Amino acid sequence: MAGKAWGGRFSEPTNEQVELFTESISFDARLAAVDVKGSQAHARMLAEVGLISKEEADQIQTALDEILIEIQQGKIEFSPSLEDIHMHIESALIARLGDVGRKLHTGRSRNDQVSTDIKLYVRDEIDHLDKLLQQLQRAFVSRDDDLDLILPGYTHLQRAQPVNAVHYWLAYTEKFQRDRERLADCRRRLNFSPLGAAALAGTTLPIDRDQTAKDLGFTAPAANSLDISSDRDYLAELVSSLSLIAIHLSSWAEEWILWCTTEFGFMTLSDAYTTGSSIMPQKKNPDVLELIRGKSARVIAASQQLFVLMKGLPLAYNRDLQEDKLAAFAAIDTIKSCLELAPSIVINAKLNRDKIASRIDDGFLDATALMEYLILRQVPMRTGHEIVGNLVALCESKNCRLKDLSLEEFQKTAPQIDNDVYDVLGAENAVSALRSFGSGGHDSVRHQLKLWQDRLAEN
């Protein structure tokens, strides 16, 4: 058992199947760079407090740099017998430096070490995800050429009211902004250093946790050593936030998949982001959007996996927590792959303007504008609602639109209606009449677009 960091009290070797069952090097190797970063900060602190010499700390830092390069170049062979990336790096360090390498783990445990590594890794990934979300926001905001286009807005997938096309793009920009803010909140809460909490109770050695926290860019040391060993709230929060990103991406993908159908005919995707059929030569399938919609299931499942993993664990560390990385890494990787493709899909999609315009007055999209016209003429809202409902029924019986009714027909139902009613009828007039803050009217949308253009230009 000499090769095991914990082998001193064992007299029998570990069963080979157990080694394979308990290893995590197959998935935690990606933590190598942050493990080295955390270990180097720990070595510097040990030297500052006099637990190792300055020369020993320098030797450790130099050797760790060399080991990381070798790992990145594939020169270090991974073995299940060494369990995880932490023990692989420590083993390589000891092979180089002997007793000097054995001193590195002074005042820490793998429990606080792994939590430190994950926090450093996740912090970097959050920063990267934020940039990807910002790029997607910029892609939507860049579609300002659509300001002159009106689209039907839907509720229950039924035509409801017309809106400026850019209103759609800004709706997703808002959703992804909330996603960015959730990630920022998660980053703020996780940014407290576990390093130096040791196994669960802290240490009798005179370590300086404030130094390592500052050195690694944490806000401060986390305050309770018992909590530190078991805390994976930050991963659950991260993956929950990623689940909402996945849901927003899936909703967007679903909408554009519908828009690309012959039945809608609103949109044509770039050939570069579609595929064909092996048997039907005419097909142009929105496979990338379908997979973005489908991959959302992985992220949502990862969130549930973490919650179930954590729900029954007593304080402090339990080996179950080794499984946390599988869920978190899967969610991070999936969201990154979706976000890396999404901006180009948004930028290169084309709206079928003529087809949209030819049907924009279908579905009585101006009915609400007519009701509000009546409200402005002192008709109670519910009465106005009923009047317009009756007028819509009349139009359906005549197979015409509201704006096709004569003034006489309007006034038979509602004497309050005057000739200026035609100023709010039709999709274009109905959109122009929208005036409330945040509405889909032309003036409101231009205002919001300018705010977003300025906001995204600043970052």
From TrEMBL:
InterPro entries: Arg_succ_lyase_C, Argininosuccinate_lyase, Fumarase/histidase_N, Fumarate_lyase_CS, Fumarate_lyase_fam, Fumarate_lyase_N, L-Aspartase-like. It catalyses: 2-(N(omega)-L-arginino)succinate = fumarate + L-arginine. The keyword Amino-acid biosynthesis applies. Its main location: cytoplasm. GO terms for biological process: L-arginine biosynthetic process via ornithine. It is an enzyme of class 4 (lyase). One of its GO terms (cellular component) is cytosol. Residues 8-300 form the Fumarate lyase N-terminal domain. Belongs to the lyase 1 family. Argininosuccinate lyase subfamily. This is Argininosuccinate lyase. The gene is argH1.
